[in-house]
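Summary of Year 1 activities. Much of the first year was spent building the evaluation harness for sequence design. The harness presents a backbone, in tokenized form, and records the residue chosen at every position. We chose the following record to illustrate the format because it has been used consistently in internal testing since the harness was completed.
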């Protein structure tokens, strides 16, 4: 690695030290509960690793669901792995109780309240970490831990840095988690290339393994025990004596934590669908994004048709007769059933002209319409002529299936477990692959910059400097301190598309700034990424200068 290069001035050393000392004193007397937990987590990073513990989190603690569920079930039934202890993160114990009771009598399965003391202890000390989303900004994967990120679907709409409106803000959490991961799970080659390599700019920087082995959650659909699924529906108060139409719209919103739904319009949509089906033969249920679920769970008009997250989505799909969706990755999973799909896309123009879609709508294997009236009036005809509808769209189904579900055989979880927990390196099928990192021969440069620069001319110069790089030979990552205002945030969205921007967040407590501390900070911010050159530009604090210097040791 080259020597650290500075285009920077270390400023305010006395003020920085004073602020740290004041914060250190104050934190002993007054600290928010959420920050106390993060400080506990930091202290637990020194306790011994529990080599036979596996820590799972799905949808930020929604329950035993999705890819982590499928992997968990596979390990549970493997006699050779019976000595593992399974720890699940759960955000709302009451809401998830029916989901958890399936495993409550197993002595090697534990449930911990998300962001509790036990949560932080197991997150810090479990040998294996499995998530289908992201761990928070405080998360630091220890070198002895094995982190597997499965994500939660094949992308249909622009993701990560390709998101047109909020490219940096949308990419920051997943990009950081992906770079920290030892394994990324991929459903297929499309997901590997489009989402991981391109949308999240892992090409050239990711040093783990990509397991292109199919999606374990699809095992839950292919191998579903339908009688058990029907029983779960009945236990949730949902009738099972009629054919099921599932309305499953995707996430709506510019940012992952900001919903963009008009609930009244949503109710009108469901009402319109219901008016256009034979209710003696069909019933409509809802499966919505888990953030929206929390809003609708107590809505009198919708709660009785809302499929609870105590039932895994892919298990639910096994008993669905017709799916109505939009850009949701649920579509790729449901293709496996060869049953009718209707694409209701009221914001089609917005997506095509704004955020962007990876899949041209004209190639989708079903009716595509932005008109509620058209979809509703067609629904009854489709119900009455399922076979004709499926036959008409069969060529499109075949074309899509050839690149997105070609390798789904109900054995993905077993392949995954064999590789990660049994050290298998041989895959018997050419449809699956193990990719050892995304290396390239480009020179890798990291530029550290403080977002709180007050000199506007600096930002003009900074952007101009980035535009002069030859990105055919150079890979540039900018590590920037978290944004305090929308103007700065928007500025980073306008940097050259080839630039990867990672966002650093200060820990909410003061720790002793030793080399070990900065080593952990590097892992927290950059994961396993390695750089040929580290630069610091602009005015920086003593902390930021020390952080960058440590990367060059």
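For this record, the design step produced the sequence shown next.
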């Amino acid at each position: 690695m080259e020597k650290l290069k500075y285009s920077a001035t270390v400023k305010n050393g006395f003020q920085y030290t004073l602020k740290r000392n004041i914060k250190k004193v104050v934190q002993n007397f007054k600290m928010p509960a959420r920050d106390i937990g993060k400080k506990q987590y930091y202290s637990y990073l020194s306790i011994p690793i529990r080599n036979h513990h596996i820590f799972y989190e799905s949808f930020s603690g929604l329950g035993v669901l999705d890819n982590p569920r499928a992997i968990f079930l596979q390990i549970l039934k493997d006699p050779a792995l019976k000595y593992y202890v399974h720890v699940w993160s759960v955000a709302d114990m009451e809401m998830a109780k029916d989901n958890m009771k399936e495993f409550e009598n197993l002595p090697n399965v534990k449930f911990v309240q998300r962001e509790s003391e036990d949560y932080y202890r197991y997150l810090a000390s479990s040998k294996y970490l499995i998530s289908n989303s992201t761990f928070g900004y405080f998360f630091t994967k220890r070198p002895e831990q094995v982190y597997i990120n499965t994500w939660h679907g094949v992308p249909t709409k622009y993701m990560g840095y390709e998101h047109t409106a909020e490219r940096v803000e949308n990419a920051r959490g997943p990009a950081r988690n992906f770079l920290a991961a030892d394994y990324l799970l991929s459903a297929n080659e499309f997901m590997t290339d489009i989402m991981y390599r391109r949308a999240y700019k892992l090409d050239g920087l990711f040093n783990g393994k990509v397991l292109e082995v199919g999606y374990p959650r699809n095992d839950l659909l292919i191998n579903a025990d339908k009688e058990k699924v029907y029983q779960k529906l009945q236990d949730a108060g949902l009738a099972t004596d009629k054919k099921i139409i599932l309305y499953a719209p995707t996430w709506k919103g510019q940012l992952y934590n900001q919903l963009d739904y008009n609930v009244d319009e949503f109710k009108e949509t469901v009402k319109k669908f219901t008016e256009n089906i034979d209710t003696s033969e069909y019933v409509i249920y809802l499966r919505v994004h888990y953030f929206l679920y929390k809003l609708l769970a107590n809505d009198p008009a919708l709660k009785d048709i809302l499929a609870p997250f105590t039932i895994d989505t892919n298990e639910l799909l096994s008993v669905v007769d017709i799916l109505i969706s939009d850009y949701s990755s649920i579509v790729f999973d449901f293709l496996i059933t060869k049953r009718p799909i209707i694409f209701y896309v009221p914001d089609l123009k917005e997506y095509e002209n704004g955020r962007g879609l990876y899949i041209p709508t004209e190639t989708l294997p079903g009716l595509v319409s932005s008109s509620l009236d058209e979809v509703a009036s067609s629904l009854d005809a489709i119900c009455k002529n399922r076979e004709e509808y499926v036959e008409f769209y069969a060529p499109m189904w075949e074309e899509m299936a050839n690149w997105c579900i070609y390798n789904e055989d109900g054995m993905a979880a077993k392949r995954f477990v064999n590789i990660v927990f049994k050290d298998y390196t041989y895959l018997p099928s050419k449809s699956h692959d193990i990719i050892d990192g995304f290396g390239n021969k480009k020179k890798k440069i990291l530029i550290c910059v403080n977002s709180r620069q007050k000199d506007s001319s600096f930002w003009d110069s900074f952007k101009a400097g980035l535009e002069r790089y030859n990105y055919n030979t150079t890979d540039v990552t900018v590590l920037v301190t978290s944004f305090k205002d929308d103007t700065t945030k928007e500025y980073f969205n306008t940097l050259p598309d080839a630039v990867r921007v990672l966002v650093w967040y200060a820990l909410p407590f003061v720790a002793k700034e030793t080399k070990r501390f900065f080593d952990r900070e590097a892992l927290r911010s950059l994961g396993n990424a390695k750089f040929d050159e580290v630069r610091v530009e602009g005015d920086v604090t003593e902390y930021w200068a020390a952080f960058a210097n440590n990367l060059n040791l």
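The mean pLDDT is 90. Quantitative recovery figures across the full test set are reported in Table 2.
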